[in-house]
UniProtKB/TrEMBL annotation, chain A:
TM segment ranges: 42-62, 83-101, 107-131
Top-level taxon of origin: Bacteria
Keywords for the protein's UniProt record, in alphabetical order: Membrane, Transmembrane, Transmembrane helix
Pfam families given in the database record: DUF6691
Protein name in the entry: YeeE/YedE family protein
Organism: Aquincola tertiaricarbonis
UniProtKB/TrEMBL annotation, chain B:
Transmembrane segments: 12-34, 55-74, 125-146
Sequence similarity: Belongs to the TsuA/YedE (TC 9.B.102) family.
Keywords, alphabetical: Cell inner membrane, Cell membrane, Membrane, Transmembrane, Transmembrane helix, Transport
The name this protein goes by in its record: YeeE/YedE family protein
Cellular localization per UniProt: Cell inner membrane
Predominant location: membrane
Keyword Transit peptide (UniProt): no
Membrane-related topology note: Multi-pass membrane protein
Length: 141, 147
């Protein structure tokens, strides 16, 4: 139960941060991605602020075997930079640039009742399901 | 096309920094309490291949994101209105690309960008550089070459 509550709280604070920072607005995100237009550097400060808090927290987490609530510390172990990582990230970046939505802000905008965000999230879930299907076929082959 | 210039009226350094600190606080508390990476595409992806005991925390995190506007409204007042310029077809195409891409690339702006860079992960740095570059290039093509 505590894990569920901690998860809910993290989602709430994360979402609050996305709204306060302006990142739940695709136009704001596209303003950052548009280097050749009038450039809005705000997103760089969002990342900077988040990483400033994240650095000490993850350094501490990396030295622990269990979380403060006693769950196993599950930090990714993969280290290789491969074609899947880069290819997938490039596809994601293209989609991000097309509409100005990445997964978190899209969910938050959906919570605001934005019809466009609902369309985006449904398509995103379909894309994720497509990936799952392709992976399952790959591992079965 | 104009030479590189900053859109000063649109630049919101204080709210960007404050929002970023909140996002960092969420990711930090999540890893310290639950031992998990607050990567939103990863959390969502796990809901699509549900395993026993692995659903509740994921659903709760997503519920938190969906309810965040309500919390904002209760604490701070009227919500900022998002400006979604893309039409339905464009949103569908973008959503599909983001869905497939984030799963193949094992993360998005939160998992690789915020958590991965905070862990000083070379893999996440490579992913972040890749999706940032692709985002810059895509907006350049759509707005300045085709637009």
């Amino acid at each position: 139960m505590l894990f569920i509550l901690a998860s809910l709280a993290a989602g709430l604070v994360f979402g609050l941060g996305l709204i306060v920072s302006g990142m739940s607005d695709p136009a704001k995100v596209l303003g950052f991605l548009d280097l050749a237009g009038a450039w809005d550097p705000s997103l760089a400060l969002v990342m900077g602020g988040a990483i400033a808090v994240g650095l000490p927290a993850f350094a501490w987490a990396a030295r622990r075997k269990t979380s403060l609530l006693g769950a196993p510390m599950q930090l990714p172990a993969a280290r290789q930079v491969d074609r899947r990582l880069l290819g997938g990230s490039l596809l994601f970046g293209i989609g991000w640039g097309v509409a100005g939505f990445c997964p978190g802000p899209a969910l938050v905008a959906m919570g605001m009742g934005e019809a466009g965000a609902v369309v985006f999230v449904l398509a995103m879930l379909a894309g994720m399901a497509l990936f799952e299907g392709l992976e399952r076929r790959r591992s079965a082959a | 096309m104009q030479p590189f210039h900053i859109d000063w009226p649109a630049f919101t350094p204080i709210s960007a920094l404050l929002g970023g600190l909140l996002i960092g606080l969420a990711a930090a508390s999540f890893v310290l309490l639950n031992g998990r990476i607050a990567g939103i595409s990863g959390v969502l992806g796990g809901l699509l291949r549900p395993r026993a005991g692995d659903i509740g925390w994921r659903a709760a995190f997503v519920a938190g994101l969906l309810l965040a506007p309500l919390l904002y409204w209760l604490l701070l007042g009227p919500l900022p209105v998002p400006h979604i310029e893309a039409g339905t077809g464009t949103l569908v195409a973008a959503g599909l690309l983001v869905g497939v891409g984030t799963r193949y690339g094992s993360g998005c702006t939160s998992g690789h960008g915020v958590c991965g860079l905070s862990r000083l992960s070379p893999r996440s740095l490579a992913a972040t550089l890749a999706f940032m570059s692709a985002g810059f290039a895509t907006v350049f093509v759509l707005r300045h070459l085709l637009g």
